[in-house]
Amino acid sequence: MKQTRRWIQRLFLGVGWFFFGLFITQCSSHQVTPAFYYWKTTFTLSDKERNYLEQLKVKKLYIRYFDVDWNPHQKEAVPIKEIRWKTKALPTLQVIPTVFITNRTLFNISYNQLKKLGNNIAIKIHEKSKGLQNVQINEVQVDCDWSGKTRERFFKLIEILKVKLRSKGIAHVSATIRLHQIKYFKKTGVPPVDKGMLMFYNMGNLDGSNTENSILDLEIARRYLVKPGKYPLQLDVALPIYRWGVVVRRGRVVELLNSLKNDTFANRSFFRPKGQNVVEVIKSTYIGSFYAYKGDVIRLEQVTVQQLKESAWMLRRFIKNKAIDVAFFHLDEKTLSNYQFENLQEIYQIF
Fold it and tell me: What is the 3-state secondary structure (H, E, C) of the chain?
């Protein structure tokens, strides 16, 4: 009798897990394209970076080609931080040239200058792409945190850029989208692009006034992801795997330290722990090219694998389009040292 009861319990448990698995499978309907951002100014790949791209079967690289900033002396928009190719043999099928445009560029530029800027961006992308081996370029991404005062000029620039790029054989334009632009899209507007890339990071204030981790704070994210499927553009997702040190001097943020090593603050002659993920400079010294003064406080921020998994589950329920690019920001050997490739593979699989 007891054996029969146990058999029935196991049967119901097995059936329950079967339907739970079926439910998860049905919910996980995204066709995921693994991707990475490349945000350095010299393009070269280490053996470790190549290995991650191959093992994760990465199909796309979003490569920052250059930034566009306003030159007050020339009174026009100019390219800065242009990509230099140390290697043009890329181990991926598709490259998406990405252009960052500062908001002050759009604030200062006149409507009459937009056509010239759109043309210059298209020409610069075409020139920078010459000689790339075994890659396709079907899309360009524009990265800009536009404001209410610059929205119309930004949207107009996109329309101009789309025409210019199509004349050069590039059919699609995408734009980065911030969390507040998702929730308040009726107020902020929706850019006239083919799809958006939701930048799922940089959520809190750098000074730590509203968060313990300004890179990724899921409590803040939940306040914005309130209406699944309502945003009128198809959305891809960018997830953070970088870390940085926020340098605070006399209560004011003065620097962001990137590309930190695990032992950057190990020397107790210069640094001492001050609470969780916080160090204090006790003797002035250089940290890379930045000179830190005695008394500076550095808050260390990075994203754990568990936080990335929770983000993936949250976004899987929010984004309703079938196909999705999931891009990690960004491809860098020091950054990758904090994550096993199996960890990143699990994130892709959650979607």
Answer: CHHHHHHHHHHHHHHHHHHHHHHHHHHCCCEEEEEEEECCCEECCCHHHHHHHHHCCCCEEEEEEEEEEEECCCCEEEEECCCEECCCECCCCEEEEEEEECHHHHHHCCHHHHHHHHHHHHHHHHHHCCCCECCECCEEEEECCCCCCCHHHHHHHHHHHHHHHHCCCCCEEEEEECHHHHHCHHHHCCCCCCEEEEECCCCCCCCCCCCCCCCCCHHHHHHHCCCCCCCCCCEEEEEECCCEEEEEECCEEEEEECCCCCCCCCCCCCEEECCCCEEEECCCEEECCEEECCCCEEEEECCCHHHHHHHHHHHHHHCCCCEEEEEEECCCHHHHCCCCHHHHHHHHHHC
Residue 91: predicted pLDDT = 83
pLDDT at 259: 84
pLDDT at position 93, please?
A: 79
Across the chain, which has 351 residues, the per-10-residue mean pLDDT values are: 47 42 53 97 96 96 99 98 94 92 98 98 97 94 96 99 97 98 96 99 94 96 93 98 97 94 94 94 97 98 98 97 98 94 97 96
CATH number of 15-242+302-350: 3.20.20.80
What is the reported pLDDT for 261? 86
* In the chain, ranges of CATH 3.20.20.80 domains: 15-242+302-350
Distance CA 191, CA 234 (A): 12
85 C-beta neighbours (distance < 10 Å), count: 16
> Would you put residue 338 in left (φ > 0), alpha (ψ -120 to 50) or beta?
alpha
β-pair type (76-80, 60-71): antiparallel
